[in-house]
Amino acid sequence: MKLLLTLLIVGNTFFSCAQSTQKTLKIPTAEKQKPVANEAVATFAEGCFWHAEIVFQSLAGVRDAVSGYAGGTTTDPDYEKVASGQTGHAETVQVHYDPAKIRYETLVKAFFASQDPTTMNRQGNDVGTEYRSIAFYNNEKEKEIIESTIQSLTRAKVYDRKIVTQVVPLTKFYPAEDYHQEYISQNRDNPYVANVSIPDFLHFKATFKEGVFKP
Question: How much is the pTM?
Answer without folding.
Answer: 0.91
